[in-house]
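ARCHIVE CARD
Drawer: 12
Card no.: 0347
Subject: one protein chain, sequence and derived structure
Cross-reference: see card 0346
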Amino acid sequence: MTQTADAVVIGAGIMGAACAYRLAERGLRVRVLEALDSPALGSSGRSAAGVRAQFNTATNILLSLHSIAEYRQMPEAEFKAIGYLILVPPALWPAHREGVARQRDLGAVTDILTPQEAQAVLAFDPAGLEACTFGPQDGVVDPHGITFGFLRRAREHGARVQTGTPATALKRVDGVWQVQTPAGTFEAPLLINTSGAWSGELAKLAGFDLPVWPGRRMVYTTGPLKTARQVPMTFDLTSGVWIRSEGARLLIGRANAEDTGWREGLDWDWLEHTLSPALERFPWLHEADLDRGASWWGYYELTPDEMPILGRMPGVDGWVNACGFSGHGVMQAAAVGRVVTQEALEETPFIEIDPLRFERFARPELSQKDIQV
């Protein structure tokens, strides 16, 4: 059986859901194909769910600002403005301070605090820190709710979503993508790659290389704290440790740059590497107990510069990327859905995405660095 559409979106996580909604809203016939048995079972559903506008580059700031504004109006997002606190060592402060100025110019609310002033937000050991920044309008969302909310809206505009339908082969024939699956063949002139950590694998099916690969990330969960604390999403840029409240519990994590590839399951050996710097920075964590059963893991979708790849793929007709977000996908999905739709319709995206296009890998002057937390 062959089904035809105007656009095939491959991947029904938060990014694919946002793109499907905005494409269908513009009148395109959309088919969403998800390899797993339900949407949001991949990286979206295993996210730490933080959203922030505290980036250094204008493109990332705007993608997050517009997404957060949309989440605030979206009941399914369950947005909570718990704030984002970033602890900055001296070596990173000049670039970080420039980022704050850019954030403010673009409309974000970001406060600069001394480490002593930041104690009013959260108690921590200020050793080795130059300054802190706090985004009171940043917070956390429900990625499941957002994904299913976008998919519901997509369906209302005629989109069809098929789960348990992995792409097994891809080819471009007479201006049309043919996507073979166990459920039959799907044809469309546009293919939107929202496959997350699997985006590089999808490109291989089409016969080209896309530098996106999986990186495993752990989220360790404590039991209820003995002393009630409201902890904003807090990143220590010295160590890469982050913590935040989840009800009466805490979520704790730290990226392991060497943990790449298709590795599954929680890495309990990495726990010591996470807790040791966390306890140094937040001594009151000694009162917490770890809840192993509530902890989880998930994949980041990584790129060489840990920045997403957006826009049409050069030399590959009808292929549009929205992948490689390196942990920032939930933060930016709402705006990316709009940008990708404009790109697919050959309109000028409302946010400049040239710094995030694939072409930057061949032109280093186009590449930009950003806060990687």
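Annotation on reverse: The chain is about 25% helix and 25% strand. The CA atoms of residues 20 and 77 lie 17 Å apart.
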